[in-house]
Amino acid sequence: MVVQRRQLHADPRxxxxxxxxxxxxxxxxxxxxxxxxxxxxxxxxxxTPGGTTTQSIAVSNTGKEAVRVRATVSDWHLSRxxxxxxxxxxxxxxSASPWTRVAPPEIVVExxxxxxxxxxxxxxxxxxAAGYRTSILxxxxxxxxxxxxKPREVAFRSRIATLIYANVGExxxxxxxxxxxxxxxxxxxxxxxxxxxxxxxxxxxxxGTLTLYDRTNAVIGxxxxxxxxxxxxxxxxxxxxAFNPDKxxxxxxxxxxxxxIDVGLPALIVGETTLKVS
Length: 278
What we know:
The protein is an all-beta fold. The protein has strands at 2-7, 23-24, 36-39, 42-47, 52-61, 67-74, 77-78, 84-85, 100-103, 106-109, 114-122, 130-142, 158-168, 175-183, 191-198, 204-205, 207-213, 219-225, 229-230, 234-241, 253-262, 267-277. The protein is globular, with a radius of gyration of 22 Å. The two termini are 36 Å apart. The relative contact order is 0.21.
């Protein structure tokens, strides 16, 4: 595999980064009794224009009380730090929500039982090759909960989403590394923040390694680049652990950091920076 290198310098600015998660928790003492699992939390589908695919999602009630489950189709995107945002699509260019139908939209799952919610996704004929997305958003509440909050009460619900990637065709991949930044916060592991820009219509996922070298060019440690999505025509931060948590922290000094990221291009994306350990 061809390796392309690019020199990038550390940026001392600090940035807050959250991991990509599919669980949104909003709890009250009553809602805290709800214990539900949804499987899978992510689906990646190969779709063709004019074709229909039907998939099942399992909803398991591991709590002690019956739970009402409401399933809806929801658009979403990722914030710059990779956190999912479930909002109405302001740009429907890559939305698969209009193609998606869910059934049944509401069920009651008894304690200790499992139910299945199905959805079908029909890609319109003539759809361009690209990475489209939608989600099934599950909202849970006790079966005896009032649909309307009482005065001075706030209604909270627990939610879990299954993120759906509908990949149509084989569009070109265009991804570049635009910057590397060091993030150091008190009482938290040091991270290297890679800024990746996806200029193409395809969703890609990251994988790779971060290697730490000392002044003699000897390898001091190595960590793994997290497997996270990079949505079409978007830019995001990817947080990579600077040190292996299972090994001692390197002694004070200045180290060279090299990252290699594979997003499916013919060449690895490679960047370098320096890291000072105090």
